[in-house]
Design a protein that fits this description.
Blueprint (H helix, E strand, L loop, with lengths): L12 E10 L6 E11 L3 E6 L6 H8 L7 E6 L4 H6 L3 E4 L11 H9 L8 H8 L14 H12 L6 E5 L7 H15 L4 E5 L3 H7 L2 E6 L2 E6 L1 H8 L3 E5 L14 E7 L2 E6 L2 H11 L6 E3 L3 H8 L13 H6 L1
Parallel strand pairs: 3-7, 3-8, 5-6, 6-7
Antiparallel strand pairs: 1-2, 1-4, 8-9, 10-12, 10-13, 11-12
């Protein structure tokens, strides 16, 4: 792949004190509330957050579709619009339908012709995994194939950074795997991929770095393992065997108890102390200790939709990440 991107060694993207507000006086929503974020070149970054957390707003600013009310956004050393015009940034957004009457190859070639130094059409097709159906009409493809075509189109300008908004939404397992194979091939060439997703397992599996947004702010930033370790408590689970669940709530380290089908799951800040206390009670039947999942950490870090600022949050976890 011939790189035609900005030749400096600076980061791929930089948000500095970014604020973006929508609405009218008295009914405004601060979608981004002073975001500071630097994305280095190379690798894969996942952007996570509940609906309304600010993910789509951040992406719209990255692509120059909106301007910040305060602060600044830079891509590859340029303004977002300048970087997009130069072909340094590609995008694959949620909205979009197959164009009828054109082949995959024709579509990629047309988009490539709009950039000053595009990637060769055959190379875009190969990198996105669409070569085998490049001469088929786009509107005759499966949903997974269309997504790969959209990825090929995002590569047409030979970008150093590609931004994807929910790239695998509504795809089956096989189609998701094929698309991720294509995206992984892109990053192995030293390029940067930033994607938003509601599939936490995808972020955990494919992202080198995960950034969690909540109420317009960055509340966690690190690898999946770092975020799990800092924000999610281990879970100690045991069979109740007729024992009342209430007596488990006061055990050392326990911060939450959930009972399902005669089995109790104890979320613990100190799993060793919790297990020791359970042993002293003789309540170790079916004992199992599991580390926190990314979903556990995500739920601990983010505010449910509609909740106000008084919702329970683990501030120590956010600071640790």
């Amino acid at each position: 792949m011939t790189q035609t991107t900005d030749t400096t060694n600076g980061p791929a993207a930089v948000f500095t004190g970014v604020v973006k507000t929508f609405g009218r006086a008295g009914r405004t929503v601060r979608a981004l509330d002073g975001i500071d974020l630097t994305v280095r070149r190379g690798g894969t970054v996942a952007l996570l957050g509940r609906n309304g957390a600010g993910k789509s707003t951040a992406i719209s600013l990255l692509l120059g579709l909106n301007d910040p009310d305060a602060g600044s956004v830079q891509l590859l050393g340029r303004t977002p619009r300048g970087a997009v015009r130069a072909g340094l940034v590609g995008a694959m957004l949620q909205d979009g339908r197959p164009i009828p009457g054109v082949t995959v190859r024709e579509l990629i070639a047309f988009v490539a012709s709009t950039y000053p130094r595009p990637l060769p059409v055959a190379e875009s097709a190969a990198l996105a995994g669409v070569t085998e159906f490049a001469d088929r009409r786009v509107d005759k493809l499966s949903g997974g194939q269309v997504q790969r075509v959209r990825f090929a189109v995002a590569l047409a300008g030979d970008p150093g950074l590609v931004v994807l908004d929910e790239p695998t939404a509504a795809l089956d397992v096989e189609a998701r795997r094929a698309l991720w194979d294509s995206m992984r091939a892109f990053t192995t060439r030293g390029n940067t991929l930033l994607f938003s997703t509601h599939h936490l397992e995808e972020a955990d599996e494919h992202a080198d770095r995960i950034v969690v947004l909540d109420r317009g702010r960055v509340v966690a930033d690190g690898t999946g393992e770092e975020i799990r370790r800092a924000a999610g408590h281990p879970v100690v689970s045991v069979d109740l065997a007729g024992r009342p669940a209430g007596e488990l709530e006061s055990l050392p380290g326990v911060v939450g108890v959930e009972v399902r089908g005669g089995r109790a799951s104890l979320r613990s800040e100190d799993s060793d102390a919790t297990v020791t206390a359970l042993a002293a009670l003789g309540a170790v039947r079916g004992l199992r200790v599991a580390g926190a999942t990314l979903e556990d950490a995500f739920l601990a870090l983010t505010t449910p939709a509609g909740a106000d600022g008084t919702a329970r949050r683990d501030e120590r976890s956010k600071e640790a990440v």
